[in-house]
Design goal:
With about 180 residues, the chain is an alpha+beta fold. It contains eight helices and four strands. It has a four-stranded antiparallel β-sheet. The longest helix has 17 residues.
Length: about 180
C-alpha cells in the first residue's frame, strides 16, 4: 500500500505581500532627513550632504549647500534662501537692465566709493561708444554686435579700462548673451 504524503506549507507563505502604507517608510522617503528646528534644511542620507529647499511662487527649489557639516549648512542656508527668493529680472531693454545694475552698485556696501564711481564711468563710456545700446531689447543683443563694439572700444581705450567696461557689460547682460566664448 502506497501512502501519499503532502507537505503542508506555512500560512504566511501563501499570503501576498503586504502593501506599504504611510506609516511604513519606503526607501524613497528614507533618503532625505529633515530638521524640524531648522526649516528648509534637508540632508541626503546616502551621502550626508545638506540641501536647502524652499517654495517660491508655487515652485519648489532645492540646491546643495556643498557641505556635510551641520553647523556649516546652517550658516550657508540663509544665503541660499536669499538667492532663491531674489526676484528674477524681467527681460526688457538694456536701459532697464543698466538701471537695475546701477541700483545694485549703489546698494553694494562691499564696494568702495571709488569703485562705484569707476564703474559708473565705465557705463558712461559704454553709452558713449555704443549709443543705440540703451534702446535695444536684451534678446536682440548678439555676440557679434558685442564683438563689433569691443573692437571699436579697444582701439580708443587702454586694456585695463576696456576689461573693466567689458566686465560691467557682462554684469548687465543675461547669461545667454555673455556665455558665448571669445567676446
Amino acid at each position: 500500500m502506497t501512502t501519499l504524503t503532502t507537505e503542508i506549507e506555512p500560512a504566511e507563505a501563501k499570503r501576498p505581500p503586504k502593501p506599504e502604507t504611510d506609516d511604513c517608510p519606503t526607501p524613497a522617503k528614507a533618503e532625505w532627513r529633515s530638521f524640524p528646528k531648522v526649516p528648509n534644511l534637508l540632508q541626503y542620507v546616502r551621502t550626508g550632504t545638506y540641501f536647502a529647499r524652499t517654495k517660491v511662487q508655487g515652485k519648489t527649489f532645492r540646491a546643495s549647500l556643498e557641505t556635510k557639516v551641520l553647523t556649516t549648512a546652517k550658516l550657508r542656508l540663509a544665503d541660499k534662501l536669499k538667492e532663491f527668493r531674489k526676484p528674477k529680472p524681467v527681460l526688457g531693454t538694456f536701459a532697464d537692465a543698466r538701471a537695475q545694475y546701477e541700483a545694485e552698485l549703489a546698494q553694494d556696501h562691499a564696494l568702495g566709493d571709488g569703485t562705484r564711481y569707476y564703474r559708473k564711468n565705465c557705463l558712461k563710456a559704454l553709452a558713449k561708444t555704443w549709443p543705440e545700446l540703451d534702446g535695444m531689447a536684451l534678446r536682440a543683443i548678439t555676440a557679434s554686435a558685442c564683438k563689433d563694439w569691443a573692437s571699436r572700444f579697444a582701439a580708443s581705450y587702454d586694456e585695463q579700462y576696456f576689461n573693466n567696461t567689458l566686465g560691467s557689460l557682462r554684469a548687465i547682460l543675461p547669461l545667454p548673451v555673455i556665455a558665448r566664448p571669445s567676446l
